Amino acid sequence: MPTAEIASQEPVSTNGKVDPSVVMDCNIENLYYGSFKAVRDTRIPVQKNAITAFIGPSGCGKSTVLRCMNRMNDLVRGFRLEGHVQFRGQDIYGPKIDPVAVRRFIGMVFQQPNPFATSVYNNVAFGLRLNNFKGNKAAKVEEALKSADLWDEVKDKLNESGLSLSGGQQQRLCIARAIATEPEVLLLDEPCSALDPVATRSIEELMKQLKARFAIAIVTHNLQQAQRVSDKTGFLYVDTSEGSRTGYLVEFGDSNQIFHDPKQKETQQYIKGEFS
Amino acid sequence: MTSDVAAAKPGIPRNPDAETLDPFHGVDFSKLERSLHRPRTFMSMLWTVIVSAMTLFALIPLFSVLWLLVWRGGRKLSIAAFTQLPPAPLEQSGGFGNAIVGTLAICGMALLISLPIGLLSAIFLAQAKPDNRLASSVRFAGKVLTGFPSILAGVFAYGVVVMATGGYSALAGAVALSILMLPTILLTSEDAIRMVPERMKEAAIGMGATDTQTVWMVLLPAAVPRILTGVMLAIARGAGETAPLLFTALFSSYWLLWHGHVKLMQPTASLAVLIYNFAGMPFANQVELAWAAALVLVVMVLIANLIGQSLANRQVQ
Amino acid sequence: MPTETQISKPPSRTQAITDTAFRALCQGFTWLVAVIAVIIVLKIVLAALPAVRQYGLGFLSGQVWDPNKKLYSILPEIWGTLYSSVLALIFGTAFGVAAALFLAEGFTADAVFALLKIVNLQFHPFWGKLPVQVENLLSNLIELLAAIPSVVYGLWGLFVIIPLVRPACHWLHADLGWIPLFGTDLSGPGMLPAVIVLSIMILPTITAIGRGALLAVPTRLRMAAYGLGATRWEAIFAVTLPTASRGIFGGIVLAFGRALGETMALAMLVGNANVISVSLFSPANTLAALLANAFPEASPKDVGVLMYAATVLLVITLLVNVAGAYIVQFTASELEGEKV
What we know:
The structure holds 3 protein chains of 3 kinds.
Chain A: H1 6-9, E1 22-33, E2 36-47, E3 51-55, H2 62-68, E4 79-87, E5 90-91, H3 99-105, E6 106-109, H4 120-130, H5 137-147, H6 151-154, H7 167-179, E7 185-189, H8 197-210, E8 215-219, H9 223-229, E9 232-239, E10 246-254, H10 255-260, H11 265-275
Parallel strand pairs in A: 2-10, 3-8, 3-9, 6-7, 7-8
Antiparallel strand pairs in A: 1-2, 1-4, 4-5, 9-10
Helix pairs in contact in A: 4-5, 4-7, 5-7, 7-8
Chain B: H1 5-8, H2 18-21, H3 39-76, H4 79-83, H5 97-127, H6 133-146, H7 150-165, H8 170-195, H9 198-206, H10 211-240, H11 243-246, E1 257-258, E2 261-262, H12 271-279, H13 284-313
Helix pairs in contact in B: 3-13, 5-8, 5-10, 6-8, 7-8, 8-10, 9-10, 10-13, 12-13
Chain C: H1 13-55, H2 58-61, E1 65-66, E2 71-72, H3 75-104, H4 107-118, H5 130-147, H6 150-176, H7 191-215, H8 219-227, H9 232-261, H10 264-269, H11 287-294, H12 300-339
Antiparallel strand pairs in C: 1-2
Helix pairs in contact in C: 1-12, 3-7, 3-9, 4-5, 5-7, 6-7, 7-9, 8-9, 9-12, 11-12
């Protein structure tokens, strides 16, 4: 059954010596919601200019791990983390760290497109206002919308409500909103699960373009998607041996290796089950 | 439902086994027909008729009130009614201009007191975690205060303002009304903020907005229509209240603005108290003015209500 | 941390200070509401203490109110408050629940649909929407009843209800005077007109809360009853009403609290007489009406006595309102729990 040493096999940092390309080093020993242990023994590095995908069956805690990485879990009552999440060598769960500040450097795009009930322009400019950006807002908004491949579709309706766009456009708007402030890391929590295949493809293309500028971590339940876009993949699974459902990392590595030559039995079964 | 299948298709010969295959064999189909002779059906119809009749009967007073307001109040309505001061006994003509001004002033002051308190605590309540003792106690207090007798709000304002300042005043009336408006504003605003979809709030927090930025940039803009609904309902309630004004703002036959001074610390007229005072007088002119004032008051209250309703219906989504 | 021309930056000092200050402000105002609620009660009770010491419990059981002799007691007012509220509650509940059923169980829409069917317009793009619209209109109309100020109801009762019921009261008293309910004649203001107006005033509360409770009953429960062959009313009596009963009951309790504290309609219609009578046609008085009438002319000495009366009213309504709010809140959370 699940073994604890898996996490340490991975080619991550050893003894604090961090691979310079690793922007975030997420090392969860135990993660609790109240008395419920949701995740254990999960160590995932997120690299610059790469897409790191989290896959696994539902309930394995992959979204929980992602939400750990910009402290969204702080909003959940009873949340407690043992371990550390380092961003550029600094523990974002350190006692003096402001979670609000963390989130400004580590942006997030959610499962459901969630534009604000305001104009397209204001949606994208939101982050700029948060950060008291003094420069040319219009230029930044245009740049972000162009980066999100949305500019051509919305340039004539910047003043229309963000909610009037289609689902795929809304999600790209949310991505534009997240990248307008140029965060270091972009966390995508099943960004395509509410979208149709065409919109999904366009988001995937977008992710490939964006990795030139950001470190990207994505949670997906769609294995083909993970295979198509990701450079690194972590497979999480559920451990039910202690009577509850605790997620843990089974295997982490290059996507090619995970999908074509998985080392662990659980990974092999999961990948085969999906592809056979 | 009533005829059997074979009879409906005469061309098909009847299956000799039909009687054994037919699941309805032996069922008297006339028993499936709806009939008022059946007690169950009859009782059902009877209840429907009773409930419909009672509902319509309950609406009669509404139409009667509205009709009388238009008929009796409308007759007396004139420019003079809006511009003149209340008449002395036996005096003909006169109006209730000062009472309209007074009602607006007292309501406005009450809103100035209750809106900041209500809105800011609503923000706290909406953001509070479910186990926050302060939030749940205040929420419960708000619900209890919703049913707080308006006369007791008057008694409270009498004790706090009238006895302290030594006289009846618009301010005392406003304090009394603000007690009655506070729970409405508090509870509707909390609801309004809570109704903003969680994912919008998440989006803001996920970008590193502080709590205050989330409130001002996302939650309040989305919640404003519903908050205004609560405010309009509170104004409508406040404008119509009489009991708390009887011995706080009292009444006055003069303008609130007198020789260039706003007399907020003097007894002040209001439409509601004018109606009460004039309704009990044995003079036809005063009674007619009471009806006209009632019409004006009801129109004001209904307009506030309608604005509130239309704002509530203009949902964001 | 990265440098360059970085847009992302931690919250500035101003932002952090604003955030802390604003959160403290909101919390402070919430405390203020709590303090206000306590002060309201304390202020009234403390002002009543001297009178409580002077008159004791005899204040509650005596029947005399004579400021000239300095004799005060409020049993007739307590009786009048409870009697008028209970009577109003009986009428208000009957009509209020009927209206709630009519609006929530689809009778309104069905009736309009049936009418449209006669002229074959039930699926017309414009007229076809009518059933739903009429249902909304009716519930808005009922809520409109609540929006009309109580002083206007008082005026209406004075000039419409009293003249309207007086002949019937004469007749009932003359022919059936041996029944205690009709034991006296209606000479103008009295219990019956006050009760009629009071029940109209509390009806919208019962209807609105009752309708909400009925609409909250999951459709699957109704379907289960229909599936077993229940008629519409059998489903209502066996499933819908029992499921919604706690919510409806909460509405009734809240309406009771409202009736107990209602002032203007009673002050104008009940007759303000210090009498205890079961007769519907006798004048009476209530605590709220007593306060409304006596306060404006009260001497400082009388104020203490009136504060005592106000405390009694406060205690009664507070008990009823806390019970009502508790029931409604409890029911709401129970039904919400069901959804999850």
